[in-house]
Design goal:
Layout (H helix, E strand, L loop, with lengths): L4 E5 L20 E2 L2 E2 H10 L5 E6 L3 H8 L7 E6 L5 H8 L9 E5 L2 E3 L3 H10 L4 E6 L9 E4 L5 E5 L8 E10 L15 H9 L4 E5 L4 E3 L3 H13 L7
Parallel strand pairs: 1-4, 1-6, 4-5, 8-12
Antiparallel strand pairs: 2-3, 6-11, 7-13, 8-11, 9-10, 9-11
Helix pairs in contact: 3-5
Length: about 240
């Protein structure tokens, strides 16, 4: 994995967390006395990832200051957003900084325990343009639903939808061919979930079920339980 770039989306406004985390961006929220983004990067490094592109926006300088120090063998570069660009716009904005093909992209405010080696092999075997890691469906009307055919090809993305039989939830981790940039809009601000994913159906888009160990720290309630969640998974330090 050392030759695959990991692009982490950490430019969000974090409005739901501001009642408990007001002095830093949500990706630097403390979990077990450590910035959550550190935990995420170290987990990826345990699979061999060495180069990280951080898509930063809100309170970007806090992230720059934290990662401009020596971070051992890891290379960390920054893709700055001068305005909120959405999840799709953030990745397009980082295009010139992304060197590998494919590249990994993921949300910087959630953790999903995933066998990244197996996910990568799946992506290569399917000759996919885009592979999405999936977890079990959530009983949450605010979550998206993903439907697959028998060959694991994505046949539908449904945002803000109730789970259906044989449906899955988006776990926020993706492997993308650089060809995906051809499907991105000319506009600067757009969403992966609403604008890009539906356009990829029928174009080599596959779903990989990776398990059920998922948490999003974007609410005070979830942040409060994140430490215990990670300790149960033995995710406490660098691999």
């Amino acid at each position: 994995m050392k030759d695959i770039d990991a692009v982490i989306l950490c430019g969000g406004l974090g409005k739901r967390l501001r009642s408990v985390v007001a002095d830093r961006p949500k990706s630097l929220a403390q979990v077990n006395n450590k910035p959550f983004l550190d935990i995420l990067i170290e987990y990826l490094a345990s699979f061999g990832f060495r180069r990280f592109v951080l898509c930063i926006g809100y309170m970007a300088e806090a992230i720059r200051r934290h990662y401009e120090r020596n971070f051992g063998p890891l290379k960390i570069v920054f893709s700055q957003e001068d305005e909120p660009l959405g999840t799709g716009g953030a990745i397009k904005n980082a295009q010139l900084l992304i060197h590998s093909d494919p590249f990994l992209a993921l949300n910087g405010d959630s953790f999903f325990k995933l066998d990244l080696w197996d996910f990568y092999k799946f992506h290569l075997t399917k000759k996919a343009i885009f592979s999405i890691a999936l977890s079990k469906p959530k009983n949450d009307k605010n979550s998206g639903v993903v439907l697959l055919d028998k060959n694991k090809k994505v046949i539908a993305f449904k945002e803000k939808a109730k789970p259906e039989k044989e449906s899955y939830s988006n776990a926020g981790i993706y492997l993308m061919s650089r060809k995906i940039f051809q499907d991105m809009q000319d506009s600067r601000v757009f969403s992966l979930e609403y604008d890009i994913f539906p356009a990829l159906i029928g174009k080599g888009c596959y779903g990989y079920y990776g398990g059920d160990e998922f948490i999003d720290i974007g609410t005070p309630e979830n942040l409060a339980i994140a430490g215990d969640f990670l300790e149960k998974l033995k995710i406490t330090h660098a691999g």
